[in-house]
Design brief:
363 residues; alpha+beta; Endonuclease I-creI; 4 domains; four-stranded mixed beta sheet; four-stranded antiparallel beta sheet; 13 helices; 19 strands
């Protein structure tokens, strides 16, 4: 047995390892050194590591089996993002959500640490204004998630408060009730900024898809067009992390420190989120964004048309106002307004053709 694997170098000193093109987390380095002031004890067994720890309700050591390495693949990074957004910080590991698809991703995430379905405990919080019976609610979650009757231990009724939106089938709380895993998750969350630095853009997208599945939202105008994509967190460090990742994709964010919102507005910011398939793991928000973007593009928004004008002029040497309006199917008056606005910002230039009383525009 090894009492202190970190100091003795038994598991090496690198948190992240590469094998070919694949990246892995060196999981034993994430464990705490002590549990109730007693060192953890480790035994390597094939691809797993047996971790022995003191349990306050027993005189003997308890044991959990974890993988030696965690593959930084799509399943893990999506799950890590979901846990950052929706996971518990100050109690045993738990993911809470009202969307079955997200709960299923949480189950997959927990299984990566060698937990099986019998280790999962779940309970449902149902709003008192819901019109569903306890039987209907339980059947819904069993049918739409990888849980069974034994996993769902309880359904609790939540009293009404204000005019909050009611989830008809309630919110499911998915838990793993092991103290050692709680300590591991706590350390893993602190290491996220370090893990993020070693990821490719594709891997960063997986992580973002997890976070936005948890705490993202799609704002719609009265017309039904999308006008904002937001991420909400009361934790300043988490907002900084998300902003830094989004900057790698040239997405501009407005941060509201009072509400904890990170807001992205404007067609091209919103289109970038769509291209990243940001709500891939939240079916309702994904459809909301898709339909809202279609309406946005049909609305001929000014910023959208200005960029269309620039792209058109890049392909041609000179174009008149009439030619631009005709090519882009924009009214002459609006086209002229956009052109003069772009000229004032020094993004395009104008030549006066006095002989024909018209202007020619170029970049």
């Amino acid at each position: 047995m090894i009492k202190d694997p970190v100091e003795r170098g038994y598991f090496g000193d690198k948190l992240m390892l590469k094998k070919g093109n694949q990246k892995y987390l060196n999981l034993p380095l994430i464990f705490p050194k002590l549990q109730y002031n007693t060192p953890l004890k480790f035994i390597l067994k094939n691809k797993n590591v047996l971790v022995f720890y003191e349990y306050k309700h027993s005189n003997s050591l308890r044991r959990l089996i974890f993988p030696r390495y965690i593959h930084l693949n799509q399943e893990f990074l999506v799950g890590l993002g979901i846990y950052l957004a929706e996971g518990s910080r100050n109690r045993h590991p738990k993911i809470t959500n009202s969307v079955p698809a997200i709960i299923n991703q949480g189950i997959k995430f927990f299984k990566l640490f060698n937990f099986t379905r019998k280790d999962l405990r779940a309970w449902i919080q149902l709003h008192e204004r819901s019109d569903k019976s306890f039987k209907e609610v339980k059947t819904f979650w069993i049918k739409n998630t990888n849980l069974n009757k034994k996993n769902i231990t309880n359904i609790r009724t939540k009293k009404a408060s204000g005019y909050a939106e009611v989830e008809p089938y309630g919110t499911l709380h998915l838990e793993i009730n092991y103290r050692l895993f709680e300590l591991l998750i706590h350390n893993l969350l602190k290491l996220i900024p370090k893990i993020i630095r070693g990821l490719s853009n594709e891997e960063l997208v997986w992580f973002l898809q997890g976070t936005y599945a948890g705490d993202g939202s799609v704002g719609l105008a009265k017309s039904g067009s999308v006008n904002m994509i937001s991420y909400t967190s009361t934790r300043k460090g988490e907002r900084i992390l998300i902003k830094n990742i989004l900057s790698k994709f040239d997405i501009m964010i407005h941060e509201n420190n009072k509400s904890g919102d990170l807001d992205a507005c404007g067609y091209y910011n919103i289109k970038k989120f769509y291209d990243l398939n940001i709500f891939n793991y939240h079916p309702y928000r994904n459809l909301r964004l898709k339909n809202g973007l279609i309406k946005l593009e049909d609305s001929h928004i000014p910023s959208f048309n200005k960029n269309r004008i620039i792209e058109l002029l890049k392909k041609r040497n000179y174009l008149t106002t009439n030619q631009i309006a005709s090519n882009l199917n924009i009214k002459y008056r609006n086209t002229n307004k956009h052109l003069n606005g772009l000229k004032n910002k020094n993004k395009i230039n104008k030549i006066d053709d006095s002989s024909q009383i018209r202007h020619k525009w170029f970049i």
